[in-house]
Amino acid sequence: MSVATFVAGTAPGALPGLGHMVPLLRHPTEFLASLPEHGDLVEIRLGRTRAYVPCHPELLRQVLTDDRTFDKGGTYYDKARDMAGNGVATCPHQDHRRQRRLIQPAFHRTQLERYGLVMEAEVGVLTDSWGDEPVVDAYPELYSLAARIVTRTLFGTHVDEDVVAGIRRSFEAAFSGFFRQMFMPEALRRLPLPANLRHRRALRHLRGTVERIIAEYRRSGADRGDLLSVLLAARDEGDGAGMADGEIHDQVVTVLAAGTETVAATLTWACYLLSQNPAAQRELHEEVDTVLKGGPAGWGDIPQLPYTDHVINETIRLYPPGWLFTRVTATDVELAGRHLAQGTTVVISPAPVHRHSSVFERPLEFDPGRWAEDRAAALPRGAFVGFGAGPRKCIGDGFGAAECAMALATMVSGRSIRCEPGADVRPVPLAAFYRPRHLFLRLPRR
Ligand code: HEM
């Protein structure tokens, strides 16, 4: 489709002062997935602010690949910068290429293989702690797994467990109020309310601890094979300069923020979807039983587990953890025939594309088989944006997909997944990442 054929529209039902905030917070996926009915680029209101949502795969791709025009900025990223400073995920276009080049080696295949050992060990600790028929509170259980993996990947085993646990706690406290802080008026944010004070204390503790660890690493000068060592060793190809301590701090917090809830949410939804789709669970068991023969999954097993990978992909298609983020136009620009003035907010969400029947057949059905090579090849370009696209695409996509596949395969090796009664899978309102409110899983041995 050429650019000229894109149609712009406006979402109906904006309330005075609130705009579309009510449906966006109550039924985000349904609301966002309904937008293509009104056009390829749809105007919505976030409170009083006008924002535009690309709903066509090509148009969304165009926005994501042109990061010079559609730059990171606005309230969402200002809030994220309170935590992650000017790290690779939050920095503007002008700083991005250098930062991305510098941190890329930390995500090189040979490094990922090393992190694979951490993943395998931590998944083993979790599943070994389960008895014959554990009932687990899914999200907290899988959050703590993902947090242990990401901190051990960053710091190896060279930092004391209680220091790492302290980082995890203050990170959680700082991060849990993320969207609430984002939507809170500035005046309220400055008040010494208990929640605000907790948030600030947690940020201070996080910064202090991470800075101390960086200083210790610098002093010892040893390559410890972990992600932090790679960040400290990174040198710019152009001027040979490394990253200053402040920059490294921002990258460490960025990796913590980007690599924990995303993975925990994906695993939680994957378990939920499998509990609701016995045929898919059977197919997964067949694959895992053949390859793992009742044992745990290692890094080297992942290529032999394509269906497991399809389950993860299909989960992210239906429940993308990164359900809403934004861009701000750096200059005036024409998009789908609309004039967007400099400073306009563009809302990025996978839902309008991932749940559209012109992109995916029977889009609401959980069908991991749609990711088999022959079927996936027939999908339109830009159909899957669960990891974003373009220069700012997730740098941890291989890391995250492998971690989810390894954890899921080990969890179902010899076990079934059942959903306990009373689950409430509506999304947690104002959470930075899309996850269910209340989900207990029973994981009996098979
Ligand atoms: C299933 C897991 C994951 C999902 C669904 C996911 C999703 C995403 C998405 C949608 C973006 C793009 C955001 C934007 O364009 O504004 C992104 C960026 C990013 N992700 Fe992930 N992510 C996952 C796991 C991870 C992991 C495990 C790490 C690190 C260990 C990570 C690190 C990052 C970083 C650093 C960026 C910023 C990249 C840049 O701007 O150059 N992610 N992720």
Structure commentary:
With 446 residues, this protein is an alpha+beta fold. The chain has one domain (3-442): Orthogonal Bundle (Cytochrome p450), CATH 1.10.630. It is built from 19 helices and 13 strands. The chain has helices spanning 21-26, 28-34, 57-65, 74-84, 93-103, 109-128, 138-155, 161-176, 178-183, 186-190, 194-220, 227-233, 245-259, 261-276, 278-292, 306-318, 351-354, 373-377, 397-412; strands spanning 8-10, 41-46, 49-54, 70-71, 135-137, 325-329, 333-335, 338-340, 345-348, 418-419, 424-427, 436-438, 440-442. The strands form four sheets. The chain has a six-stranded mixed β-sheet. Strands 5-13-10 form a three-stranded antiparallel β-sheet. A hairpin with a 2-residue loop joins strand 7 and strand 8. It is globular and about 55 Å long. The structure holds protoporphyrin IX containing FE. Protoporphyrin IX containing FE (HEM) is lined by residues 88-89, 100, 150, 254-255, 258-259, 262-263, 266, 316, 321-322, 325, 386-388, 392, 394-396, 399-400, 404.
